[in-house]
Amino acid sequence: MSNKPHLGNAKITFKQNINASAGNAPVEYQASSWLTFNNGWDDASNRPYPLTDQQQLVIEQLHQQMAQAGVQVQTTIKQKAGQDSRAWPVAGRFNQFVNKIDGQAPQQHAPQQSYGGNDAW
Fold first, then answer.
1. Domain range for 99
2. According to a count of CB atoms within 10 Å of the terminal CB, is the N or C end of the chain lower?
3. Cα–Cα distance for residue pair 1/42, rounded to 1 Å
């Protein structure tokens, strides 16, 4: 596996505090991701500009390839502390799985490994 992540975002903020547990029970969260292109923002409709037909086709092809290959996206969330990103504490890790493509059987998910209560399904 590559030492450099294939995807990333160095400036993540949350709208509320994220808790690993409530009392003795782990708190579960749900993560969703979309493949998209940055076509800019339409202030009038308060949403991204729509994808072109060609962009939508590219996304559908990538989704199909990811599903066929059994790709998963592993995500690590770190709390920024200091300048050395390698020393930042890990707040959570989770996998994301390719969702079922309409008309096909869902991808088989391997048993999820636990990372401090921050699992995805």
1. 71-121
2. N
3. 38
